[in-house]
Amino acid sequence: MKRTGAQIICESLVREGTDVIFGISGGTVIPLYDAFSEYPQIRRVLVRHEQAAAHAAAGYARSRQKASVCVATSGPGATNLVTGIADAYMDSTPMVVITGQVSTGLIGRDAFQECDITGITLPIIKHNYLVHYVRDLARTIKEAFYIAQTGRPGPVLIDIPKNVQLATDDFHYPETVDLPGYAPVSDPDPSQVANAAQLLNKATRPVIIAGRGVTISQAYDELRELAESFQAPVVHTLLGLGSFPPRHDLNLGMLGHHGIVAANRAVQEADLILAVGTRFGDRTTMRTRDFARRAVVVHIDIDPAEIGKNVAPFATVIGDARAVLRQLNPLLKRAERPGWLLQVRTWRDAHPLVAANRTSSLSARTVIRQICRSADEHTVIVTGVGQHQMFAAQEYASPRVNGLISSGGLGTMGFELPAAIGVQMASPQDSVWVVAGDGGFQMTMQELSTVVQEGLPIKIAVIRNGYLGMVRQWQDLFQQHNYVDVALHAPDFVKLADAYGIAAVRVEKEEDLVPALGRASAHPGPFLIDFAVDPEENVYPMVAPGEGLDCIIEAPGRITAVKT
User: Fold this and answer.
1) How far is CA 246 from each of CA 136, 514, 533, rounded to the nearest angstrom?
2) Over 70: is that where the pLDDT of 562 sits?
3) What is the Cα–Cα distance from 547 to 265, expressed in whole angstroms?
4) How far apart are CA 324 and CA 109, in angstroms?
5) Quick check: is 493 catalytic?
Protein backbone atom coordinates (compact mmCIF):
# COMPACT_ATOMS: atom_id res chain seq x y z
CA MET A 1 0.00 0.00 0.00
CA LYS A 2 1.41 3.37 -1.02
CA ARG A 3 1.69 6.13 1.54
CA THR A 4 2.82 9.71 1.43
CA GLY A 5 6.18 10.66 2.81
CA ALA A 6 4.40 12.38 5.71
CA GLN A 7 2.50 9.18 6.52
CA ILE A 8 5.72 7.20 6.30
CA ILE A 9 7.31 9.56 8.84
CA CYS A 10 4.40 9.13 11.24
CA GLU A 11 4.27 5.36 10.83
CA SER A 12 8.02 5.15 11.39
CA LEU A 13 7.76 7.22 14.58
CA VAL A 14 5.07 4.88 15.86
CA ARG A 15 7.33 1.89 15.14
CA GLU A 16 10.01 3.57 17.26
CA GLY A 17 7.63 3.97 20.18
CA THR A 18 7.24 7.73 19.91
CA ASP A 19 4.21 8.89 21.87
CA VAL A 20 4.93 12.62 22.18
CA ILE A 21 6.40 15.21 19.85
CA PHE A 22 7.20 18.82 20.66
CA GLY A 23 7.10 21.47 17.98
CA ILE A 24 5.47 24.22 15.96
CA SER A 25 3.98 23.74 12.54
CA GLY A 26 4.85 25.90 9.53
CA GLY A 27 4.83 25.99 5.76
CA THR A 28 7.23 23.15 5.04
CA VAL A 29 5.82 20.74 7.65
CA ILE A 30 2.12 21.26 6.98
CA PRO A 31 1.93 17.88 5.15
CA LEU A 32 3.51 16.19 8.19
CA TYR A 33 1.11 17.82 10.63
CA ASP A 34 -1.77 16.91 8.35
CA ALA A 35 -0.67 13.27 8.58
CA PHE A 36 -0.29 13.48 12.35
CA SER A 37 -4.08 13.80 12.59
CA GLU A 38 -4.30 10.17 11.44
CA TYR A 39 -2.11 9.00 14.35
CA PRO A 40 -3.82 9.82 17.66
CA GLN A 41 -1.30 7.68 19.53
CA ILE A 42 1.24 10.47 18.97
CA ARG A 43 0.51 13.41 21.26
CA ARG A 44 1.49 16.73 19.75
CA VAL A 45 2.64 19.49 22.08
CA LEU A 46 2.42 22.96 20.54
CA VAL A 47 5.09 25.06 22.25
CA ARG A 48 5.43 28.83 21.94
CA HIS A 49 8.98 28.89 20.57
CA GLU A 50 10.98 26.23 18.77
CA GLN A 51 13.86 26.47 21.24
CA ALA A 52 11.39 25.31 23.87
CA ALA A 53 10.50 22.35 21.68
CA ALA A 54 14.11 21.17 21.74
CA HIS A 55 14.46 21.72 25.49
CA ALA A 56 11.16 19.95 26.17
CA ALA A 57 12.32 17.04 24.04
CA ALA A 58 15.57 16.98 26.04
CA GLY A 59 13.68 16.90 29.33
CA TYR A 60 11.52 14.05 28.03
CA ALA A 61 14.55 12.08 26.81
CA ARG A 62 16.52 12.53 30.01
CA SER A 63 13.57 11.47 32.16
CA ARG A 64 12.33 8.58 30.02
CA GLN A 65 15.85 7.46 28.99
CA LYS A 66 14.90 7.14 25.32
CA ALA A 67 15.13 9.27 22.22
CA SER A 68 12.56 12.04 22.00
CA VAL A 69 11.32 13.98 18.97
CA CYS A 70 10.94 17.67 18.16
CA VAL A 71 9.69 19.20 14.92
CA ALA A 72 10.04 22.60 13.26
CA THR A 73 9.53 24.17 9.89
CA SER A 74 12.35 25.43 7.67
CA GLY A 75 14.28 28.67 8.03
CA PRO A 76 13.69 30.42 11.36
CA GLY A 77 11.83 27.41 12.72
CA ALA A 78 14.89 25.26 12.21
CA THR A 79 17.40 27.87 13.40
CA ASN A 80 15.36 28.42 16.56
CA LEU A 81 16.07 24.79 17.42
CA VAL A 82 19.83 25.24 17.26
CA THR A 83 20.42 26.20 20.90
CA GLY A 84 18.44 23.21 22.08
CA ILE A 85 20.30 20.91 19.69
CA ALA A 86 23.65 22.18 20.95
CA ASP A 87 22.48 21.72 24.53
CA ALA A 88 21.48 18.12 23.80
CA TYR A 89 24.78 17.44 22.06
CA MET A 90 26.85 18.75 24.96
CA ASP A 91 24.85 16.74 27.50
CA SER A 92 24.66 13.50 25.47
CA THR A 93 20.88 13.59 25.17
CA PRO A 94 19.26 11.27 22.60
CA MET A 95 16.95 13.25 20.34
CA VAL A 96 15.59 13.00 16.81
CA VAL A 97 15.05 16.44 15.31
CA ILE A 98 12.79 16.67 12.25
CA THR A 99 12.85 19.86 10.22
CA GLY A 100 10.95 20.76 7.11
CA GLN A 101 12.83 22.05 4.09
CA VAL A 102 11.81 23.84 0.91
CA SER A 103 11.11 21.55 -2.02
CA THR A 104 14.16 19.94 -3.61
CA GLY A 105 13.84 22.03 -6.79
CA LEU A 106 14.18 25.22 -4.71
CA ILE A 107 17.17 24.22 -2.58
CA GLY A 108 20.09 26.54 -3.23
CA ARG A 109 17.93 29.31 -4.73
CA ASP A 110 17.37 31.35 -1.58
CA ALA A 111 13.72 30.35 -1.54
CA PHE A 112 11.39 31.73 1.13
CA GLN A 113 12.44 30.32 4.52
CA GLU A 114 15.20 28.23 2.99
CA CYS A 115 18.08 27.49 5.33
CA ASP A 116 20.96 25.02 5.24
CA ILE A 117 20.16 23.56 8.64
CA THR A 118 22.30 20.47 8.05
CA GLY A 119 25.30 22.73 7.45
CA ILE A 120 24.52 24.93 10.43
CA THR A 121 24.18 22.02 12.84
CA LEU A 122 27.17 20.01 11.63
CA PRO A 123 29.41 20.89 14.63
CA ILE A 124 26.64 20.33 17.22
CA ILE A 125 24.98 17.15 16.04
CA LYS A 126 25.83 13.48 16.26
CA HIS A 127 24.63 13.00 12.68
CA ASN A 128 22.24 14.64 10.24
CA TYR A 129 20.42 13.86 6.99
CA LEU A 130 18.91 15.75 4.08
CA VAL A 131 16.40 13.33 2.53
CA HIS A 132 15.98 13.78 -1.23
CA TYR A 133 13.74 10.79 -2.01
CA VAL A 134 10.65 9.41 -0.32
CA ARG A 135 12.00 5.88 -0.66
CA ASP A 136 14.77 6.77 1.84
CA LEU A 137 12.53 8.08 4.62
CA ALA A 138 11.81 4.91 6.59
CA ARG A 139 15.44 3.78 6.50
CA THR A 140 16.64 7.23 7.53
CA ILE A 141 14.32 7.40 10.53
CA LYS A 142 15.35 3.91 11.63
CA GLU A 143 19.00 4.90 11.41
CA ALA A 144 18.42 8.20 13.19
CA PHE A 145 16.90 6.56 16.26
CA TYR A 146 19.63 3.94 16.30
CA ILE A 147 22.42 6.51 16.12
CA ALA A 148 20.78 8.80 18.68
CA GLN A 149 20.43 6.05 21.28
CA THR A 150 23.55 3.92 20.88
CA GLY A 151 27.12 4.55 21.94
CA ARG A 152 27.35 8.01 23.44
CA PRO A 153 23.80 9.33 22.90
CA GLY A 154 23.13 12.57 21.09
CA PRO A 155 20.82 14.48 18.74
CA VAL A 156 20.28 13.45 15.11
CA LEU A 157 18.61 15.79 12.64
CA ILE A 158 16.54 14.80 9.61
CA ASP A 159 15.81 17.61 7.13
CA ILE A 160 12.89 16.70 4.87
CA PRO A 161 11.86 18.79 1.84
CA LYS A 162 8.16 19.48 1.48
CA ASN A 163 7.82 17.63 -1.82
CA VAL A 164 9.35 14.52 -0.24
CA GLN A 165 6.62 14.63 2.38
CA LEU A 166 3.99 14.80 -0.38
CA ALA A 167 5.49 12.09 -2.62
CA THR A 168 4.24 8.50 -2.33
CA ASP A 169 5.94 5.13 -2.02
CA ASP A 170 5.40 1.68 -0.58
CA PHE A 171 6.08 1.55 3.16
CA HIS A 172 8.55 -1.00 4.46
CA TYR A 173 10.11 -0.34 7.84
CA PRO A 174 13.52 -2.01 8.17
CA GLU A 175 14.11 -4.42 11.03
CA THR A 176 17.81 -3.58 11.31
CA VAL A 177 20.28 -0.91 10.25
CA ASP A 178 23.36 -1.32 8.12
CA LEU A 179 25.94 1.31 9.02
CA PRO A 180 29.44 -0.08 8.38
CA GLY A 181 31.10 3.19 9.38
CA TYR A 182 29.36 3.38 12.75
CA ALA A 183 30.46 0.81 15.31
CA PRO A 184 29.80 1.99 18.86
CA VAL A 185 31.44 -0.02 21.63
CA SER A 186 29.33 -1.08 24.61
CA ASP A 187 31.07 -4.17 25.99
CA PRO A 188 34.56 -3.44 27.30
CA ASP A 189 37.77 -5.27 26.51
CA PRO A 190 38.31 -7.68 29.44
CA SER A 191 42.03 -6.92 29.45
CA GLN A 192 41.30 -3.22 30.00
CA VAL A 193 38.97 -4.08 32.88
CA ALA A 194 41.56 -6.40 34.42
CA ASN A 195 44.24 -3.72 34.18
CA ALA A 196 41.94 -1.19 35.86
CA ALA A 197 41.17 -3.68 38.63
CA GLN A 198 44.87 -4.21 39.33
CA LEU A 199 45.39 -0.48 39.74
CA LEU A 200 42.32 -0.07 41.94
CA ASN A 201 43.36 -2.92 44.22
CA LYS A 202 46.65 -1.12 44.95
CA ALA A 203 44.95 2.13 45.96
CA THR A 204 44.86 3.38 49.53
CA ARG A 205 43.06 6.71 48.97
CA PRO A 206 40.65 6.08 46.07
CA VAL A 207 37.91 8.44 44.91
CA ILE A 208 35.16 7.66 42.40
CA ILE A 209 33.97 10.47 40.10
CA ALA A 210 30.46 9.73 38.86
CA GLY A 211 29.50 11.51 35.65
CA ARG A 212 26.47 11.60 33.41
CA GLY A 213 27.51 8.29 31.85
CA VAL A 214 26.38 6.53 35.04
CA THR A 215 22.86 7.90 34.55
CA ILE A 216 22.78 7.22 30.81
CA SER A 217 23.72 3.58 31.35
CA GLN A 218 21.56 3.35 34.52
CA ALA A 219 24.51 1.89 36.40
CA TYR A 220 23.10 2.96 39.77
CA ASP A 221 23.25 -0.42 41.50
CA GLU A 222 26.67 -1.20 40.06
CA LEU A 223 28.09 2.13 41.24
CA ARG A 224 26.72 1.63 44.74
CA GLU A 225 28.11 -1.92 44.88
CA LEU A 226 31.51 -0.62 43.81
CA ALA A 227 31.58 2.20 46.36
CA GLU A 228 30.40 0.07 49.26
CA SER A 229 32.56 -2.99 48.67
CA PHE A 230 35.62 -0.97 47.70
CA GLN A 231 35.00 1.63 50.42
CA ALA A 232 35.69 4.59 48.16
CA PRO A 233 34.05 8.00 48.54
CA VAL A 234 31.97 9.19 45.59
CA VAL A 235 32.02 12.69 44.12
CA HIS A 236 29.93 13.90 41.22
CA THR A 237 30.02 16.12 38.22
CA LEU A 238 26.99 18.39 37.88
CA LEU A 239 25.29 15.93 35.53
CA GLY A 240 26.37 12.97 37.65
CA LEU A 241 24.22 14.11 40.57
CA GLY A 242 21.37 11.68 41.10
CA SER A 243 23.42 8.61 40.23
CA PHE A 244 24.34 7.76 43.84
CA PRO A 245 22.26 8.25 47.01
CA PRO A 246 22.98 11.79 48.21
CA ARG A 247 22.51 10.89 51.88
CA HIS A 248 24.86 7.90 51.66
CA ASP A 249 27.81 8.19 54.01
CA LEU A 250 30.25 7.73 51.11
CA ASN A 251 28.72 10.59 49.09
CA LEU A 252 30.77 13.79 49.20
CA GLY A 253 28.66 15.73 46.70
CA MET A 254 29.66 17.72 43.64
CA LEU A 255 33.25 18.61 42.83
CA GLY A 256 34.61 21.43 40.70
CA HIS A 257 34.14 25.16 40.33
CA HIS A 258 31.34 25.35 42.92
CA GLY A 259 32.11 21.96 44.37
CA ILE A 260 31.83 20.91 47.99
CA VAL A 261 35.08 21.49 49.88
CA ALA A 262 35.34 17.86 50.98
CA ALA A 263 34.80 16.63 47.41
CA ASN A 264 37.52 18.88 45.99
CA ARG A 265 39.97 18.07 48.76
CA ALA A 266 39.38 14.33 48.43
CA VAL A 267 40.14 14.47 44.71
CA GLN A 268 43.30 16.47 45.33
CA GLU A 269 44.52 14.07 48.04
CA ALA A 270 43.50 10.82 46.31
CA ASP A 271 46.10 8.37 45.10
CA LEU A 272 43.64 6.91 42.57
CA ILE A 273 40.74 8.47 40.66
CA LEU A 274 38.18 6.20 39.02
CA ALA A 275 36.27 8.46 36.61
CA VAL A 276 33.07 6.87 35.34
CA GLY A 277 31.29 8.44 32.37
CA THR A 278 32.71 11.95 32.54
CA ARG A 279 34.58 14.05 30.01
CA PHE A 280 36.61 15.95 32.64
CA GLY A 281 35.09 19.30 31.68
CA ASP A 282 36.80 22.50 32.76
CA ARG A 283 34.18 23.26 35.44
CA THR A 284 34.98 19.88 36.97
CA THR A 285 38.78 19.97 36.83
CA MET A 286 39.48 23.72 36.87
CA ARG A 287 43.24 24.15 36.24
CA THR A 288 43.98 20.78 34.69
CA ARG A 289 47.71 20.72 35.42
CA ASP A 290 46.86 20.76 39.13
CA PHE A 291 43.95 18.33 38.93
CA ALA A 292 44.38 15.22 41.12
CA ARG A 293 48.11 15.54 40.76
CA ARG A 294 48.79 12.85 43.37
CA ALA A 295 46.51 10.31 41.71
CA VAL A 296 46.62 7.57 39.13
CA VAL A 297 43.61 8.27 36.89
CA VAL A 298 41.52 5.41 35.50
CA HIS A 299 38.99 6.66 32.96
CA ILE A 300 35.86 4.71 31.98
CA ASP A 301 33.94 6.15 29.06
CA ILE A 302 31.93 4.92 26.10
CA ASP A 303 33.34 7.61 23.80
CA PRO A 304 36.98 7.02 22.80
CA ALA A 305 37.23 10.67 21.71
CA GLU A 306 36.98 11.77 25.34
CA ILE A 307 39.99 9.76 26.49
CA GLY A 308 42.93 12.07 27.10
CA LYS A 309 41.14 15.11 25.68
CA ASN A 310 41.28 17.05 28.93
CA VAL A 311 43.00 14.81 31.49
CA ALA A 312 45.52 12.16 30.53
CA PRO A 313 44.58 8.86 32.21
CA PHE A 314 47.01 6.19 33.35
CA ALA A 315 44.54 3.49 32.27
CA THR A 316 41.41 3.43 30.15
CA VAL A 317 38.33 1.24 29.78
CA ILE A 318 36.20 1.94 26.72
CA GLY A 319 32.61 0.83 27.12
CA ASP A 320 29.18 1.37 28.61
CA ALA A 321 29.52 2.29 32.30
CA ARG A 322 27.10 -0.38 33.47
CA ALA A 323 28.78 -3.11 31.43
CA VAL A 324 32.21 -2.04 32.65
CA LEU A 325 31.26 -1.92 36.34
CA ARG A 326 29.56 -5.30 36.11
CA GLN A 327 32.86 -6.77 34.93
CA LEU A 328 34.99 -4.69 37.28
CA ASN A 329 33.21 -5.25 40.60
CA PRO A 330 33.98 -8.99 40.95
CA LEU A 331 37.68 -8.28 40.36
CA LEU A 332 38.01 -5.82 43.22
CA LYS A 333 39.15 -6.81 46.69
CA ARG A 334 36.81 -5.85 49.50
CA ALA A 335 38.57 -3.06 51.35
CA GLU A 336 38.57 -1.30 54.70
CA ARG A 337 39.85 2.27 54.71
CA PRO A 338 39.07 3.72 58.15
CA GLY A 339 41.81 6.31 58.01
CA TRP A 340 40.95 7.65 54.55
CA LEU A 341 37.21 7.70 55.19
CA LEU A 342 37.70 9.39 58.56
CA GLN A 343 39.76 12.07 56.81
CA VAL A 344 37.17 12.84 54.12
CA ARG A 345 34.36 12.85 56.69
CA THR A 346 36.37 15.27 58.80
CA TRP A 347 36.66 17.60 55.82
CA ARG A 348 32.94 17.26 55.19
CA ASP A 349 32.03 18.08 58.80
CA ALA A 350 34.48 20.97 58.97
CA HIS A 351 33.15 22.72 55.87
CA PRO A 352 29.33 22.74 55.94
CA LEU A 353 27.29 24.68 53.41
CA VAL A 354 25.98 27.90 54.91
CA ALA A 355 23.62 30.63 53.73
CA ALA A 356 25.91 33.62 53.45
CA ASN A 357 23.65 36.67 53.25
CA ARG A 358 24.69 40.29 52.84
CA THR A 359 21.33 41.63 54.05
CA SER A 360 18.55 40.39 56.27
CA SER A 361 16.32 39.40 53.33
CA LEU A 362 15.38 35.86 52.32
CA SER A 363 18.32 33.63 51.36
CA ALA A 364 18.25 31.90 47.98
CA ARG A 365 20.20 29.01 49.49
CA THR A 366 17.62 28.61 52.24
CA VAL A 367 14.80 28.48 49.69
CA ILE A 368 16.52 25.98 47.43
CA ARG A 369 17.74 23.88 50.35
CA GLN A 370 14.14 23.49 51.51
CA ILE A 371 12.96 22.50 48.04
CA CYS A 372 15.78 19.98 47.65
CA ARG A 373 15.38 18.45 51.08
CA SER A 374 11.62 18.17 50.66
CA ALA A 375 12.01 16.21 47.44
CA ASP A 376 11.18 12.52 47.72
CA GLU A 377 11.60 9.56 45.38
CA HIS A 378 8.67 10.84 43.30
CA THR A 379 10.08 14.33 42.75
CA VAL A 380 12.19 15.65 39.89
CA ILE A 381 13.90 19.04 40.15
CA VAL A 382 14.67 20.88 36.90
CA THR A 383 16.91 23.94 37.04
CA GLY A 384 18.09 26.64 34.74
CA VAL A 385 21.63 28.00 34.77
CA GLY A 386 23.22 30.41 37.21
CA GLN A 387 23.45 30.84 40.96
CA HIS A 388 20.23 28.95 41.63
CA GLN A 389 21.60 26.00 39.65
CA MET A 390 24.73 25.83 41.79
CA PHE A 391 22.75 26.19 45.02
CA ALA A 392 20.57 23.29 43.86
CA ALA A 393 23.57 21.18 42.91
CA GLN A 394 25.20 21.78 46.29
CA GLU A 395 22.01 21.15 48.25
CA TYR A 396 20.66 18.25 46.18
CA ALA A 397 19.37 15.53 48.52
CA SER A 398 16.60 13.67 46.70
CA PRO A 399 16.54 9.86 47.04
CA ARG A 400 15.28 9.58 43.48
CA VAL A 401 17.75 8.41 40.86
CA ASN A 402 18.10 10.88 37.99
CA GLY A 403 16.12 13.36 40.04
CA LEU A 404 18.03 16.52 39.10
CA ILE A 405 17.90 17.63 35.47
CA SER A 406 19.84 20.68 34.35
CA SER A 407 21.75 22.14 31.44
CA GLY A 408 25.39 21.23 31.94
CA GLY A 409 27.82 21.58 29.06
CA LEU A 410 26.15 24.42 27.18
CA GLY A 411 24.83 26.15 30.28
CA THR A 412 21.58 27.30 28.67
CA MET A 413 19.58 29.92 30.54
CA GLY A 414 15.88 29.34 29.96
CA PHE A 415 16.30 25.55 29.83
CA GLU A 416 14.32 24.91 32.98
CA LEU A 417 10.64 25.58 32.18
CA PRO A 418 10.44 23.90 28.74
CA ALA A 419 12.60 20.99 29.94
CA ALA A 420 10.23 20.53 32.86
CA ILE A 421 7.36 20.23 30.38
CA GLY A 422 9.14 17.29 28.80
CA VAL A 423 9.99 15.76 32.17
CA GLN A 424 6.38 16.01 33.37
CA MET A 425 5.06 14.43 30.18
CA ALA A 426 7.59 11.62 30.43
CA SER A 427 6.78 11.03 34.10
CA PRO A 428 3.17 12.15 34.67
CA GLN A 429 3.00 10.38 38.03
CA ASP A 430 5.88 12.44 39.46
CA SER A 431 6.03 15.89 41.00
CA VAL A 432 8.14 18.23 38.90
CA TRP A 433 9.67 21.35 40.42
CA VAL A 434 11.23 24.09 38.33
CA VAL A 435 13.93 26.13 40.06
CA ALA A 436 14.55 29.22 37.95
CA GLY A 437 16.40 32.49 38.20
CA ASP A 438 14.51 35.63 37.25
CA GLY A 439 16.92 36.15 34.34
CA GLY A 440 16.67 32.72 32.77
CA PHE A 441 12.96 32.43 33.49
CA GLN A 442 12.23 35.51 31.40
CA MET A 443 13.93 33.87 28.40
CA THR A 444 11.31 31.13 28.07
CA MET A 445 8.48 32.12 30.39
CA GLN A 446 6.07 32.17 27.45
CA GLU A 447 5.93 28.39 27.92
CA LEU A 448 3.65 28.97 30.90
CA SER A 449 1.00 28.97 28.20
CA THR A 450 2.09 25.49 27.11
CA VAL A 451 1.95 24.29 30.72
CA VAL A 452 -1.68 25.41 30.99
CA GLN A 453 -2.60 24.19 27.53
CA GLU A 454 -1.32 20.68 28.31
CA GLY A 455 -2.77 20.62 31.83
CA LEU A 456 0.58 19.97 33.52
CA PRO A 457 0.84 20.31 37.35
CA ILE A 458 4.37 21.74 37.28
CA LYS A 459 5.47 23.72 40.33
CA ILE A 460 7.72 26.72 39.66
CA ALA A 461 10.05 28.48 42.10
CA VAL A 462 11.33 31.75 40.65
CA ILE A 463 14.39 32.88 42.62
CA ARG A 464 14.12 36.62 42.06
CA ASN A 465 17.20 38.59 43.09
CA GLY A 466 16.94 41.32 40.47
CA TYR A 467 20.24 40.44 38.80
CA LEU A 468 21.88 38.12 36.36
CA GLY A 469 23.20 36.63 39.56
CA MET A 470 26.21 34.59 38.51
CA VAL A 471 27.56 37.38 36.29
CA ARG A 472 27.03 39.86 39.12
CA GLN A 473 28.93 37.54 41.48
CA TRP A 474 31.93 37.46 39.16
CA GLN A 475 31.80 41.22 38.77
CA ASP A 476 31.60 41.50 42.54
CA LEU A 477 34.56 39.23 43.26
CA PHE A 478 36.83 39.74 40.27
CA GLN A 479 35.86 43.08 38.68
CA GLN A 480 36.00 45.30 41.78
CA HIS A 481 32.20 45.33 42.21
CA ASN A 482 31.77 46.96 38.81
CA TYR A 483 28.21 45.88 38.00
CA VAL A 484 27.67 46.33 34.27
CA ASP A 485 24.37 45.36 32.59
CA VAL A 486 23.33 42.82 35.20
CA ALA A 487 20.45 44.57 36.98
CA LEU A 488 17.11 43.15 35.83
CA HIS A 489 13.65 44.58 35.58
CA ALA A 490 11.08 41.85 35.99
CA PRO A 491 7.32 41.77 35.69
CA ASP A 492 5.10 40.99 38.64
CA PHE A 493 5.43 37.22 38.38
CA VAL A 494 2.33 36.61 40.49
CA LYS A 495 0.23 38.75 38.15
CA LEU A 496 1.91 37.13 35.16
CA ALA A 497 1.01 33.67 36.42
CA ASP A 498 -2.55 34.83 37.07
CA ALA A 499 -2.76 36.13 33.50
CA TYR A 500 -1.95 32.61 32.28
CA GLY A 501 -4.44 31.08 34.71
CA ILE A 502 -1.79 29.73 37.09
CA ALA A 503 -2.08 29.97 40.88
CA ALA A 504 0.76 31.95 42.42
CA VAL A 505 2.05 33.51 45.61
CA ARG A 506 4.94 35.77 46.61
CA VAL A 507 7.29 34.93 49.49
CA GLU A 508 9.54 37.54 51.09
CA LYS A 509 10.07 36.13 54.61
CA GLU A 510 11.62 32.86 55.72
CA GLU A 511 8.66 32.00 57.94
CA ASP A 512 6.43 31.94 54.85
CA LEU A 513 8.70 29.53 52.94
CA VAL A 514 7.47 26.14 54.17
CA PRO A 515 3.75 27.04 54.07
CA ALA A 516 4.11 28.28 50.48
CA LEU A 517 5.88 25.11 49.37
CA GLY A 518 3.19 23.04 51.05
CA ARG A 519 0.45 25.00 49.36
CA ALA A 520 2.11 24.56 45.98
CA SER A 521 2.60 20.82 46.46
CA ALA A 522 -1.02 20.33 47.51
CA HIS A 523 -2.38 22.29 44.55
CA PRO A 524 -3.64 19.96 41.78
CA GLY A 525 -2.47 22.17 38.91
CA PRO A 526 0.52 24.35 38.09
CA PHE A 527 1.69 26.72 40.81
CA LEU A 528 4.26 29.52 40.81
CA ILE A 529 6.07 30.98 43.81
CA ASP A 530 7.90 34.28 43.41
CA PHE A 531 10.72 34.25 45.98
CA ALA A 532 12.11 37.73 46.60
CA VAL A 533 15.61 36.86 47.78
CA ASP A 534 18.75 38.67 48.85
CA PRO A 535 19.97 40.52 45.75
CA GLU A 536 23.68 40.09 46.53
CA GLU A 537 23.99 36.62 48.01
CA ASN A 538 26.90 34.76 46.45
CA VAL A 539 27.37 31.04 45.89
CA TYR A 540 30.11 29.54 48.04
CA PRO A 541 32.29 27.59 48.01
CA MET A 542 33.85 28.38 44.68
CA VAL A 543 37.23 27.98 43.02
CA ALA A 544 38.57 31.21 41.59
CA PRO A 545 39.10 31.27 37.82
CA GLY A 546 42.55 30.09 36.83
CA GLU A 547 43.10 28.24 40.11
CA GLY A 548 43.18 24.55 40.95
CA LEU A 549 40.69 22.61 43.05
CA ASP A 550 42.77 23.09 46.19
CA CYS A 551 42.31 26.86 46.26
CA ILE A 552 38.76 27.49 47.42
CA ILE A 553 36.85 30.65 48.30
CA GLU A 554 34.71 29.61 51.25
CA ALA A 555 33.02 32.76 52.48
CA PRO A 556 31.81 36.17 51.28
CA GLY A 557 34.28 38.98 51.65
CA ARG A 558 36.98 36.51 52.60
CA ILE A 559 38.96 34.99 49.73
CA THR A 560 40.74 32.24 51.57
CA ALA A 561 42.92 29.55 50.11
CA VAL A 562 42.11 26.15 51.58
CA LYS A 563 45.24 24.22 50.77
CA THR A 564 45.64 20.49 51.00
Assistant:
1) 47, 22, 26
2) no
3) 14
4) 51
5) no
- 415 and 346 housed in the same domain: no
Q: Please identify which of the residues 143, 470, 493, 531 carries the catalytic annotation.
A: 470
- With CA atoms as reference, report the closest residue to 541 among 263, 237, 235, 180: 263
Same domain, yes or no, for 263 and 336? Answer: yes
CATH of the domain at 224: 3.40.50.1220
For 74-85, how does the pLDDT look when each residue is reduced to its tens digit (9 = 90+)?
A: 999 999 999 999
531 included as an active-site residue? no
Is 50 catalytic? The answer is yes
CA distance 485 to 467: 9
The torsion region of residue 232 among left (phi > 0), alpha (psi -120 to 50) and beta comes to: beta
Decide the pairing of beta strands 431-437 and 404-405: unpaired
Residue 44 lies inside a defined structural domain of this protein: yes
Catalytic residue among 162, 286, 475, 493: 162
Q: Is the pLDDT of residue 559 over 60?
A: no
- What is the H or E stretch that residue 96 is in? strand 95-101
101 is catalytic: no
Tell me which of 16, 50, 447, 537 is the catalytic residue.
50
- The answer as to whether 399 is a domain residue is yes
**Where a domain ends, among 104, 135, 170?**
170
pLDDT at 199: 98
* DSSP codes, 7-52: HHHHHHHHHTT--EEEE---GGGHHHHHHHTT-TTSEEEE-SSHHH
Assess whether 291 carries a catalytic annotation: no
Most distant pair of Cα atoms in the chain: their distance: 74
Give me Rg for the CA atoms of the chain.
24
What are the angstrom distances between the C-alpha of 394 and each of 88, 366, 368, 397, 542?
Answer: 23, 12, 10, 9, 11
For 106-129, the pLDDT digits (tens) are 999 999 999 999 999 999 999 999
Catalytic residue among 65, 113, 218, 370: 113
Q: Structurally, how many domains does the chain consist of? A: 3
With cut-offs at 50, 70 and 90, classify the pLDDT of residue 564: very low
pLDDT score for 357: 65
Given 2, 112, 198, 377, which residue is catalytic? 112
**Residue 495 sits in the same domain as residue 411:** yes
What pLDDT sits at residue 320?
Answer: 97
Do 144 and 82 share a structural domain?
Answer: yes
